[in-house]
Amino acid sequence: MKSHQNYIKGQWVSAQSGLLMDVINPASEKVIAQVAKSHHNDVDAAVEAAQKAFPAWKALTVEERIGYLERIYQGIEARKEELAQVIAAELGAPISFSRSGQVGLALRELKASLEEVADFEFEEMADQAKVVKEPYGVVACITPWNYPLNQIQRKITPALLTGNTVVVKPASNTPLTALIYAEIIDQAGLPAGVFNLVTGSGSEVGDYLADHPDVDLISFTGSTEVGKNLYSKAAPQVKQLVLELGGKSAMVYLKGGDLTFAVKKAMDTVIYNQGQTCSAMTRLLVPEECLEETKEAILNYYQEQVVVGDPLAEDTTLGPLVSADQLKRVQDYIEIGQEEGAEILIGGHPLERPGYYFESTVFVAVDNAMRIAQEEIFGPVLCVLTYQDLAQAIAIANDSIYGLSGGVVGPADQALEVAYQLQTGNIFVNDGPRSPKAPFGGYKQSGLGRENGKYGLEDYLQLKAIFL
Ligand code: NAP
Ligand code: MG
After folding, report:
1. Is 197 a domain residue?
2. pLDDT in the model for residue 353
3. Are residues 185 and 263 in the same domain?
4. Same domain, yes or no, for 376 and 266?
5. One domain for residues 454 and 386
6. ∠ Cα 324 330 333 (to 5°)
7. Distance between Cα 207 and ligand 2 center (Å)
8. What is the CATH number of the domain that holds 43?
9. Claim: this prediction has a pTM higher than 0.70
């Protein structure tokens, strides 16, 4: 079995302790590789390398930095099938989704950032003052397992393009994708220390990295709980943060719209990636009188679209959850929902087969005050809620500590009116397509800052006004 090292200062190095940790395939429950189980001294080495590399990297022209990122793009493109296979193996995402929704998404977003940075104004005038936008220094990138390639891409692309150097701490469930990314970066010939990767546990390595006095910006994607912890830990040093946290987004169906489409759009987000997507529309809101029709549309979707199976099988649409812990979390929420009085329309059980499989599950008779409607489950679970009038629909959708994504399906003018009233960072109106140049990020406790396009670049730059 292969064991992997950290990537520090342009070299592959073992954890100084020599310790390793297992990577498990969630479909087979077997150990498929081992990676370095790093500790504080490994983080110190990575941060030092990033700090030393910063002045020269910052001094390059933007065009020079774009050149390196273009080579990284080509490197991902050249290894995209291998990356999709590794994501299927360590995350359990079906291969078709790994190709398009994981690797394809990363390529589209990276390309969009390269297009946007070409026109980005790194200097501008405010009256007679010259305003220059400068990098912070060393960026700590701490990422989750649900999109193991793109969550890293969304951070390192803007951080590097703007002249920062980085230390990445990937999720322990999915480090193999991150290690291929590091190989690609190594082959792209970045100066030593500009990009560093350290694997290890969040509570030991992630926490220490974020707290490191020589880290200038923390860029974190993950749970709101850990995000809040990092926010408070950044306070003593007034450290800058980018936080992409949880969500409990609503799909609001308005009478007169295409109900089948609204159901498909919400169900897709809880099936793709097994519902382990922060922006999933896990609450479907429909008018009371449309409930029966909604149930029918859900059952039809389920029969036509849900194919549980091996992630490597071409026709699988629902694979296993990422880990035994995640399976337990979903099971616990199913029990909580039933105790709260919600009814199960479909699903509700783990599958009798090896692997961390859980049935696609839909709750009806859900009240928005229930925990299953307020808390992020992060599994293939949809909650259906009903409303009496538009004002109530908007109130229910906004009654959440989160505000990451959402959708409105209905007559175009009315749907747009509702979109304006929802407190959320992204909102899809009918079949509006997403753009990799648009900002991604949340209102309320879904986070701080925005990723993607020119908005992502801005988060990694600080402003200096020079009065001439
Ligand atoms: P998580 O437990 O918060 O972990 C995210 C990352 O933080 C992992 O690398 C983890 O390391 C590390 N970490 C854990 N504890 C830490 C600590 N005390 N200090 C510093 N780092 C720590 O989240 P997850 O379970 O991987 O991912 C699921 C969550 O991420 C969901 O809540 C989801 O909504 C959110 N998410 C948000 C977005 C977004 O863009 N808004 C996108 C994807 C996911 P280990 O892996 O070693 O534990
Ligand atoms: Mg975790």
Report:
1. yes
2. 95
3. no
4. yes
5. no
6. 140
7. 13
8. 3.40.605.10
9. yes
Which helix H or strand E contains 354, and what residues bound it? none
Question: What does the pLDDT read at residue 281?
Answer: 98
Give which of 316, 326, 101, 140 is closest to 233, Cα–Cα: 140
For residue 406, report the distance from its CA to the centre of ligand 1, in Å. Answer: 21
CB atoms within 10 A of CB 389: 10
**CA-CA distance, 326 to 443, in Å (whole number)?**
25
Residue nearest to atom 18 of ligand 1 (CA): 203
Same domain, 258 and 239: no
Give the mean pLDDT of the chain: 98
Ligand 1 centroid distance, CA of 249 (Å): 18
Tell me whether residue 441 is in a domain: no
Please give the pLDDT value at position 328. Answer: 98
**pLDDT score recorded for residue 94:** 98
Range of the domain at 423: 250-429
**Do 12 and 130 sit in the same domain of this protein?**
yes
Residue nearest to atom 8 of ligand 1 (CA): 171
**Residue for token digits 């994607």?**
221
- 161 assigned to some structural domain: yes
Q: Is residue 436 within 6 Å of ligand 1 at its C-beta?
A: no
244 is catalytic: yes
Spot the catalytic one: 116, 244, 376, 451: 244
Query: What is the C-alpha separation between 270 and 361, in angstroms, rounded?
Result: 9
Number of domains present in the structure of the chain: 2
Neighbours of 379 (CB within 10 A): 24
Same domain membership, residue 276 and residue 239: no
The tens digit of pLDDT for each residue in 291-335 reads: 999 999 999 999 999 999 999 999 999 999 999 999 999 999 999
